[in-house]
Amino acid sequence: MFQECFHHSPRSNWAYAYDMDTIHLRVQTKRDDVEEVTAIAGDKYDWDSINEELPMLKIATDRFFDYWEAAVKPKYKRFSYIFRLRQGEETVYLTEDGICSDQPQPVAGYYEFPYIHEIDLFAAPEWAKSAVFYQIMPDRFADGDPSRDPENKAEWGGQSTWESSFGGDLKGIADHLDHLTDLGVTAVYLTPIFQSPSYHKYDTVDYMKIDAHFGDKAMLKKLVRDCHDRGIKVVLDAVFNHTSEHFPPFQDVLKHGEQSKYADWFHVRTFPAEVKDGIATYDTFGFYGQMPKLNTANPEAKQYLLDVATYWIRETDIDGWRLDVANEVDHHFWRAFRQAVKDAKPDAYIIGEVWNDSRAWLLGDQFDSVMNYPFADKVLGFFTGEGLDGRTFAEGMNHLLMRYPQGTNEVIFNLLSSHDTPRVLTRAGGNKLKLKLAVVFLMTYIGTPCVFYGDEIGLQGGNDPDCRPCMEWDEGKQDRELYDFYKLLIGLRKSHPALLSGRFRFLKADGGDARIIYERLGEGEHFTVWMNPTGERTVLEHAMDTNDWHDALTGDHAPAKDGVQQVELDPYGYRILRREL
C-alpha cells in the first residue's frame, strides 16, 4: 500500500458531526490501492466495554485517490478512533501518531472526537434542503408599474447593454407569481433592489431604501407576503464588499478627506481619495473607482451593515441573504453577520458568492451555502462540450463532493447559469438535448438547485451583458416544451426525499466512454440515472440484484435479466429509474 497517500484529519470534512447523534469519518487512500478500510471506535473512558468496528464504504474516487466513509453513533457523544487498512495479506493501522503494523493499545495516540456540541453543528435551514430556487434580475423580469420607469428606459426586449434599463420592478415580479408556482419553484433570489444609479444595483447608494424604479418597502412587504402564501421563500442580495461612489459616507470622505468621520469606513491608501491616471487612491471592487470597498473591520461600518441585514428581515420577513463578493470581506464580519441574522430569523438562509473552494466559509460559523460555480463548470463542460469521458467527469465531481461534509453538500447552491455567466442553452450551442441532460443532472444531484430566470423558456445569451435579456412573456415566443420539461424535473425532485439528501455515487463512469450511470440512495427509495451524452443510440448495462425498477417519470417497469439491467437510450438521452426499499 502507498502509505504516503493515506490522509485523515480530525476536523472539517474528514471528521465532522452530521447531527447530534452521528459523526462521519473519512479516509483518503491511493486510487485502487486498498481493498478494505475499517474504523475502530470506542469510548476513551471505557474502551473495554464500549467499542466497535465499522466497515467503511468507498464513497468516491477522483484522479489520484479513493475516499472512504463510515458513520459513527457514539453512546455518549464522544469517542476515540483509529483506522485499519488492508490490501491482501498486508494490514496497517492509521493513528494520530502515525502508521503502524499492529493495533496500538487504546487510547493513547488515537484520534479523538471529544464531544458533539449542538452549538458547533453545521446547521443550515431545513427548508433549504428541499428548495428549488429561481434567480431574478428585477429590471429584466417584468415591468408591472410603468409609472416607475427610469427616464432612459429602453424598449422591453431590446438588446441588453451595460447601461440599458428596461423598467422591470417588484410589481412585475408579483404579477407573475403564477408562473413561479406553476413551474414548481419554492424560493426566489433577487439581485439587489436597493437605491442605486445602475440597473443592476450592485453599487448601492442607500441600503435602507428600495430603489424607486423598483418600488418601495410596502411593495417588498407585499411581495414577500404573497410569496409566502404560495410557499415561496424570498432571498435578497446584499452588497457589503463595496458601495456606490454616491454612498453618502463616501461622499463625506471625498469632501473632508482624512477629517471625515467616515474616513476609516473605506480603505483609502492616500488622501485625497480620488482616481488618478485611471487608478483609485482607495481600494475598490476590481478597478472600478465608482465602487469603493468598505472596511468591514471598522466598528461603525460593521454595525451599520449588520443593522441593514436585520432591518430588512424584521421589516419585510425575507428569508435570507445572498452575499456579493463574499470572499473579499473579512471572516470576523461574516461571523458577526451570521449571529445577527440568525438571531433575527433562525432559519434564514445565507449564501455567499465564492467561486472557488469555500471550506473556510462553511464551517458552521459563517455561511450556510455558496454559489457552486465549480459545479456549473464541470457539468456544462461535460454535457454541453465535446470530448470529456465519464471517468474524467466523475473524478471532477467526486473531488468537489469531498471538499465538504455531507450536510454542506445537501444545501450547496447549485446552478447552471446566472447573471455573471453565459446562458445554459447558449453554452449548449442551442442544443436542447444537451441542455436537458445538464438539467436532469442538476435536479437529481445532491444540493439546492437554482434556475436563472428565462432558462426554462429557452432564453439565450453569452457573457454579461448578453446573459441578462428581458424575460419573454409572450407564450407564442416561449419554448413551452422546454418549460414543461423543467416543470417535470422540478416536480420529480420535490416528490422524492432521496433526491434531496440521499447518497450520491457514480456506478459507471469509464475512461474513453462518455456514458454514465449514477445513483441516489435514501431511506425507502433508490434511484439510478442513466445518461448518454453522445450523438449515437446506445444500450447501457449494469449489474442489478433486483428486478423491481420502474421509470420514475412514466411508471413503466424496467426489467433486469439474469442479474443485469439494460437500458436503451436515444442520442443525448437519459432515463431515471426508481425502486422502493
Features:
25% strand, Immunoglobulin-like, globular, six-stranded antiparallel β-sheet, 581 residues, eight-stranded parallel beta barrel, Oligo-1,6-glucosidase, domain 2, TIM Barrel, 4 domains, alpha/beta, 30 strands
Can you describe what's shown?
The protein has 581 residues and is an alpha/beta fold. The protein has four domains: 3-120, Immunoglobulin-like, CATH 2.60.40; 130-243 and 302-497, Glycosidases (TIM Barrel, Alpha-Beta Barrel); 244-295, Oligo-1,6-glucosidase, domain 2 (Alpha-Beta Complex); 499-580, Immunoglobulin-like (Sandwich). It contains 15 helices and 30 strands. It has an eight-stranded parallel β-barrel. Strand 28 (560-561) and strand 29 form a beta hairpin. Helix 9 (373-383) packs antiparallel against helix 10 (390-401). The model has no long low-confidence stretch (mean pLDDT 97).
Question: What's the short version?
Answer:
It contains 15 helices and 30 strands.
Please outline the helices and strands.
Elements: E1 15-17, E2 23-30, E3 36-42, E4 51-55, E5 57-61, E6 65-72, E7 79-87, E8 90-95, E9 98-100, E10 111-113, H1 126-130, E11 133-136, H2 138-141, H3 170-175, H4 177-183, E12 187-190, E13 194-195, E14 206-210, H5 217-229, E15 233-238, H6 248-256, E16 275-276, E17 279-280, H7 299-316, E18 320-323, H8 331-344, E19 349-352, E20 369-372, H9 373-383, H10 390-401, H11 406-409, E21 413-415, H12 424-427, H13 432-444, E22 448-452, H14 480-495, H15 498-501, E23 503-509, E24 516-522, E25 525-531, E26 538-543, E27 550-551, E28 560-561, E29 564-569, E30 574-580
Parallel strand pairs: 11-12, 11-22, 12-15, 15-18, 18-19, 19-20, 20-21, 21-22
Antiparallel strand pairs: 1-2, 2-6, 3-4, 3-7, 5-6, 7-8, 7-10, 8-9, 13-14, 16-17, 23-24, 24-25, 25-30, 26-29, 27-30, 28-29
Helix pairs in contact: 7-8, 9-10, 13-14
